[in-house]
Amino acid sequence: MATILPLKATQYEKRGATDEAALETLESLVADDLAAVNQLILQRLDSPVALIPQLARHIIAAGGKRLRPLLTLACARLCGYEGERHHKLAASVEFIHTATLLHDDVVDASYLRRGGPSANATFGNQASVLVGDFLFSRAFQLMVEDGSLDVLRILSNASAIISQGEVMQLVTNNDSTTSEQAYLEVIRAKTAELFAAACRIGAVVAGRPLAEEETLRTYGLNLGIAFQIVDDVLDYAAEQKSLGKAVGDDFREGKMTLPVILAIHRGSEAERTFWRRALNGHQDQRDGDLAHAQELMRRHNAYADSTARARHYGAVARDALGPFPAHPVKDALLDIVDFTVERGF
Amino acid sequence: MATILPLKATQYEKRGATDEAALETLESLVADDLAAVNQLILQRLDSPVALIPQLARHIIAAGGKRLRPLLTLACARLCGYEGERHHKLAASVEFIHTATLLHDDVVDASYLRRGGPSANATFGNQASVLVGDFLFSRAFQLMVEDGSLDVLRILSNASAIISQGEVMQLVTNNDSTTSEQAYLEVIRAKTAELFAAACRIGAVVAGRPLAEEETLRTYGLNLGIAFQIVDDVLDYAAEQKSLGKAVGDDFREGKMTLPVILAIHRGSEAERTFWRRALNGHQDQRDGDLAHAQELMRRHNAYADSTARARHYGAVARDALGPFPAHPVKDALLDIVDFTVERGF
């Protein structure tokens, strides 16, 4: 096995945006589909209750990468699908994702999201909970309109697993003894399962055999794990302005993410005492704690080695696509893996 | 039209529990089904994440009337259904209901539910939001297992409408100019649509013609409206110990319910000044405000006349069942309407 050369912190923090081209390439390959999905999303956000489209637009129109619906569109095209059913399903996936974002921000008491105030900061926690419920219901309405019980099964299973993952995360919060394995199980459930489902339904809508569904599920699941690990690194290592949320949010919440777990496991007893106190929640945190935590993570190569772990999952995702014949979408999906791992935002 | 004699407050407050026999009769007619549903509910609450069954059992096992799943079971039997598919669908209905209860208690910051501490009081708001999401997903998993797209459509539509109703309610909170019509639209969406769906899927599972679905939908919708009006009266007029939640919760939240709206519309300008301040939220409330509000509602016959409105919807519900041939379940469903309107808890 090749030795993974850890990047120095300064190197790490300068990387990223260079690979955005991969995302743009994938977007351009399914540009018409993506435009149709965006239109469908705006259209199906509508409700006679004005606060719902207002709040939902706040979060959905604010952008975000639309990575999950993009995966559905791309995987369907990769499977040779030529119809339009995947538009509704991609919109469903984005609605489920957005519902979980709204509820996450309430649960985490986060006040920044995608570079602006989060929905709960602007509209309050109550509306965020309820509009999340609305988007979730709307996702199922879209799936029902499509009529595939297979898709309904895949996405209702994913949704149940996501919420279990979120609860698991709640239980590990503030617990500095959380293991890397427990962390992995949390991010698999809360993040990667929706990536997996988003990819898999591309094969379902194209009527491809189960083996192909499995292949795309593997791609999505591993991409999703890599994505979340990198997200968790960026929460500490990114520059505030490129991140679009507050650096150190995870720290203030005492969230047990991989760079923290690595630093704890590699640290001295004195450092573990620091982590125990600092991760116990913001009420026990002092000025300078975040900077000290970042210094410890750098000292123990926690950013670079977390990214190396992400790279491992990225490699599994890339290999999953092996059996697919050459196709511009295939190349773009491979490049997306690298973008996901190496991005700086 | 017959004159509706308003009950005196003291009469009103002594009524109720006498009619519980109607509920017991309905339960006994579908006792085996109900036992199967209860077992299914407990079984499908399970999750490897221990906090989920703990929290979910807290609210589901705490009892409640199981009115909505009972309606599904009863309506299916009334339609001549002899199978067991309705067990899963009844459990779905209860899961959706429970998910909305969990989210409601977070949104309303309620700390009592069914005579004990609410889930959010015991387990925190974060877990309540997430376990609500889990139950909602689980409801859809159960429907997918059943495989009826008609049921999926009916319940995903109902779910979307419920969350819209909850948001509408949020918008009317603290607004003392809220109209009776706006109130009606809120309770129809947030409460009655799920009653309607619960009844309607009884006909769907029995494979009955659309007209019969419509009949049961009408029954459920009107029963649900009556149910919510009475609930809103009881929030002021019930005795604490029989209510199982805190008397005056709606008042403290500035919720615009029918007895309040009637008292405002019938009151003097000075009274309206009182209502404006008192309904602006607990921060503007003073000792004695709740008692004064109750006194104003009694003076303006707001409890009795709200109950009269409920009785109107109850009558529509009863008439809906007219076309069904004589059947013990039919009689029980008719009696349930009276129980719903006249109950004291």
Description:
Two copies of one chain form a homodimer. By secondary structure, the first copy, chain A, is mostly helical. Helices cover 74% and strands 1% of the residues of chain A. The first copy, chain A, has 18 helices and two strands. The first copy, chain A, has helices spanning 9-14, 20-29, 31-44, 51-60, 67-78, 85-108, 119-123, 125-146, 149-172, 180-205, 210-237, 240-243, 249-253, 258-266, 269-278, 289-299, 302-320, 328-342, and strands spanning 112-113, 116-117. In chain A, helix 6 (85-108) runs antiparallel to helix 8 (125-146), helix 6 packs antiparallel against helix 10 and helix 9 runs antiparallel to helix 10. Residues 1-18 of chain A have low confidence and may be disordered.
Give a brief description.
The structure is a homodimer of 345-residue chains. Chain A is built from 18 helices and 2 strands. The first copy, chain A, is an all-alpha fold and 345 residues long.
Strand fraction band of chain A? under 5%
Order of helices and strands of chain A: HHHHHHEEHHHHHHHHHHHH
Q: Summarize model confidence as the mean pLDDT of chain A.
A: 89
Looking at the structure, what is the overall shape of chain A? Answer: globular
Instruction: Describe the main β-sheet of chain A briefly.
Output: 2 strands, antiparallel
Q: Given the structure, what is the number of helices of chain A? A: 18
Rg of chain A, please? 20 Å
Alpha-beta classification of chain A? mainly alpha
Which pair of chains forms the biggest interface, and how many residues does each contribute? Answer: A-B, 42 and 42 residues
Span between N and C termini of chain A?
A: 29 Å
Helical coverage of chain A, percent range: over 70%
Q: Which regions of chain A have little confidence, pLDDT < 50, spanning 5+ residues?
A: 1-18
- Looking at how many chains there are and whether they match, the oligomeric state comes to homodimer
Number of strands of chain A: 2
Biggest β-sheet: strands ordered side by side in the sheet of chain A: 1-2
